[in-house]
Structure formats: C-alpha cells, structure tokens
Amino acid sequence: MSQQNDLEKKIYNKILLAKAELSKAELICFKLEDKRHLLPFTPENEHLFHKYDAQIKGEKEKIAYIKDHLESLELAYNYYLESSKVEKSFNTPFTTKSKNFIGGSLTPALLGRHNSHKTSDGRTDVPSSLPQFRIGSKSYADPEHFLIAFRRIHVAYGFDPNIHWSRLFPLCTSNIIIRWVELL
Q1: What does the mean pLDDT of the chain come to?
Q2: 71-80, 148-157, 164-173: least confidently modelled range
Q3: 14, 67, 164, 167: which could join 159 in a potential S-S bond, CB 3.0 to 4.6 Å?
Q4: Superkingdom, according to UniProt (predicted)?
Q5: Per-domain residue ranges for the chain?
Q6: Is residue 95's pLDDT more than 90?
Q7: Whether the Cβ atoms of residue 149 and residue 81 lie closer than 8 Å to each other
C-alpha cells in the first residue's frame, strides 16, 4: 500500500509542479503582451516590438508544451486512480494481490529492456478491438471514457493489469502520450 501511495503522490506532485509552471509562463506572457501594447509605436521602438513578439511567441510555445505535458500527467494520474479503484472494487480475474499497478513496468516494456510480448503468465494474445486514445477520428478524446473501455478489455480477457497493461497500452495511443507516461 505504501508504494501505491508514494506513486500516487509522485504523480500528483508532478501535476502541481506543471500547473505552477503553466501559471508562471502565462503570467510572463501576459506581462510581455502588456508591455508591448503600452509601448508607443515609433521607428526607434520597432526593434523592441520585434523583441517582445519573439519573447511572446516563445512563451506561447512553452505554454502549449506545458499544457500537453499537464494533460498527459493528468491522464496518467486518472488512469492510476481508476486502475486502483478497479483493483479494489472488482472480484474478477482483474483483481490482483499486488497493490502496485504501475510499478515502473511500463517503461521497460516501452524501451525494449525486456521482451514485452512474453509475460509471466504466458499470455501473448492481443485483443483485436483495443480502444484507441487520441489517434484519429474514431478514438476516445476523453481520458475517462478511454480508461473505462481499456479496463473492460482487461476484465473481458481476464488480463492481470500488473502484467498486461504495459504491453497493451502502447498499442492504444500515440508516441507522445507514451513518452509522457515514461517520464513518471
């Protein structure tokens, strides 16, 4: 239980840090835009306009990057909470004795540090209808809806999430989201 709480706190703290960085970047951008708008337009100030425009553009790119990062962290956090809830609430093959659902098992599988298609329970089957998250028009855009569908696949196939989620999750989403999960 302690490992589970530690991981939950770690993810939550990363979310708080990302939100703080986002607020800071938005404030900097606001101040730069304010300075630019208050600056009188004269030929002597033209270089300052270009300087402020470049700084504002950089801050807006930073804001977009932080928002993507924050969205991925929140997705991972919600997935973690949802998987913990499922593990505690169902008395199905999905329930396991281990309380550490994520436990770092995703990163080795994604990075190829072990043979991820071979599992400790010997299962190598891949469901033909895995839900997709933010890949194309027929995928889930909402993390909660995706997680519910992903959980249902685990339950339907009798997959142990401690073994199979790291093998199947990369098949459901884009590389950028997988990279964010690796950072956890």
Answers
A1: 76
A2: 71-80
A3: 164
A4: Eukaryota
A5: 2-182
A6: no
A7: no
